[in-house]
Amino acid sequence: MTDTPDLMERNEGVELEIENPILSALDLSDDAEMQARLGGLHPADFSDYFEELTDAQREALVERAPGSITGELLAELEDDIVEDVLPLLEPELIADALTDLDNDDVTQIIEEMDDAQRIQVLGAMDAGDRAEVEASLAFDDETIGRLMQRAFVSAPEFWTVGDTIDHMREAGGELPDVFHNIYIVDPMLRPIGYVTLSRLMRSPRDATLASLMELKLVTIDESQDQEEAAYLFEKYHLVSAPVVNAAGRIVGMMTVDDIIDIIQDENKEDILGLAGVSAAGVADTAVETVRSRAPWLLINLGTAILASIVIARFDYAIEQLVALAVLMPIVASMGGNAGTQALTVAVRGLAERDLTKATALRAIRREGLSAAIIGLIFAVALALIAFVWFGDVQLAVVAFVAMIINHVAAGLAGILIPLGLKRAGADPAVSSSVFVTTVTDVVGFAAFLGLAAAVLL
Questions:
Q1: What is the DSSP string of 200-229?
Q2: Across 135-185, where does the E strand assignment appear?
Q3: Which segments of 35-158 are extended strands (E)?
């Protein structure tokens, strides 16, 4: 079937890129009409369009329609955008916008304020909300105490289903907006089990919570690192979990939507760390980007000089046999790629807790053996290339042995270096790649040129 002429003419005018509805709204002369149009956008979509605006366009939007900057929008925006937008808003407007958000989202937004604005916004908040935010800010960054929701539903085990439902109806606005479990607590407010909402609603009103509750309860300590909590959610397939203090009393809860955000943040951090860079936000300047990347490149310059010193030690060999200059980058490059592969697997294994003290030795043996086998395969290929290219059997043998040595060194470095850094308390995702690259370059050049000097000259 073919398009009709009029349809084809219409298709020719179709824009592949969707027009930003915020810019269209800003073109309207009536502020009330503009506010109404923006109010129809979902906060997640609004945030995407908002991040595309220039600073001047954002200022114009805030000036004409400050009510469009809702708490839901602020919670969806990237941190660097929130940091730029907050100074444009009045403290009372921010406090009002944060009223409908969960405690964890409020805390994240408050974190982006400078001290003066934070004091003003907290002063404009309800006393109870302000106390909750201040309690969250008392915890270290990236700990569960700062990220948890302080609203939760708990009940004693002797309550019936009817008691629990009646209590939740009476509590009304004090309940969290979304929750999945009712946590059963003892007289000391320590969680001892839970009842899912679905099971509660299917049970008769006279059934006791003790007869319905699940006893396999996983709790999270309020001082625990967010990455550890994400691991527990993944390991035990949790939808929510109670948060307890040092005395074991329940003080909040974590839900799976919060954990998904943590997992995404941690994965992004690890991926960027492997490259030695930080995230470049849409609002970052070139100077900020340079400042975050230059230090690692400076370290890389130092390791490159170390590899060059190794080459310089064998300059006489390169002068006498030009073929060495042709082949030595191949040996170093292949070793570097092999080391990166082993490093990526090791860092991922450490992040997912698959690589532990119990499994480390087996993983080291596996990487060493696989590196030797892969090195043997490509050593044969490089030796054949060297022989066909230069017609020198001894040169082919040197390339063969050097390739195997560098592959084995790369494979072992790729797993031993992140394990060592983890044991030393450093983040292997951030600092391993520089050391692995140094090992593969230095060993590759030293093995190839050293063997060449001994055998060929």
A1: HHHS-TT-BHHHH-B-----EETTSBHHHH
A2: 154-156, 181-185
A3: 154-156
Q: CATH number for the domain including 355?
A: 1.10.357.20
Alpha carbon distance 98, 118 (integer Å) = 13
Does the pLDDT of residue 50 top 70, yes or no?
A: yes
Statement: residue 266 has pLDDT above 90? no
Domain boundary among 138, 167, 202: 138
b/e map 239-267, b = 16+ CB within 10 Å: ebbbbbeeeeebbbbbbeebbebbbeebe
Give percent above pLDDT 90 in the chain. Answer: 50
Res 318 pLDDT > 50? yes
Q: Which DSSP symbol is given to 398?
A: H
| Interval 200-230: pLDDT, tens | 999 999 999 999 999 999 999 999 999 899 9
Backbone dihedral angles phi then psi of residue 160, each to the nearest 5 degrees = -95, 170
Over range 60-87, report the average pLDDT.
Answer: 90
Q: How far apart are the first and last CA of the chain?
A: 74
In a domain? residue 10: no
Tokens linked to 301: 């310059």
